[in-house]
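User: Fold this one for me? It's TetR family transcriptional regulator.
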Amino acid sequence: MARPRTVDREYILDVAEGVAAATGAAGLSFGAVAAAAGMSKASVQSAFGTRESLIEAMLDRWLAQETARFTAKAGESPSLKVRVLAHIANTSEESEVSMQRAATLLACLAGSDSQVGAVARWYTTRVGDLSVRNDEERRLRLAFLAAEGAFFMRYVVGYSMCTERWSDIFEDLTRMAGEPERKQDRQGRRKQL
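Assistant: Here's what I get for TetR family transcriptional regulator.
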């Protein structure tokens, strides 16, 4: 009796990412992935069960890869400032393909509660609950939110932005997040510490 053929989930995830990048969220189906992978639709479906499970696996893999890059920049127990600066750097340096993949996965999640919690937890580990105690934390919160806004404008909404403009924005955000805290001197002028 022949052994059942095993399905390589990582290979299917690679193919699914390619399908999603080429066709967008609407084109991501078991049939499309199976055709691109050169296997039966049943084989793809047996590996993931549902389209939502496939999307969850794709998102989990992207989050793990992004988190590994982030940790390499920020270290194991970074301060808020280091976390925000590492996040800005990660977002700025991420490849177009990876950013489009992330945007497609987020679009696939729209209207689905299945992985929204994972994304919310990812944000929480990155910046906490967005509460602030001082001006520096307020500036860091704004820089983080601006980086996310730039990502959404360019990759989710499709706002046209050249590479030079993208780099310029992230240089500004890096400066904004990296500014040292300032205090006022006795005459009410702000001075750098």
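One thing worth pointing out: The CA atoms of residues 16 and 184 lie 55 Å apart.
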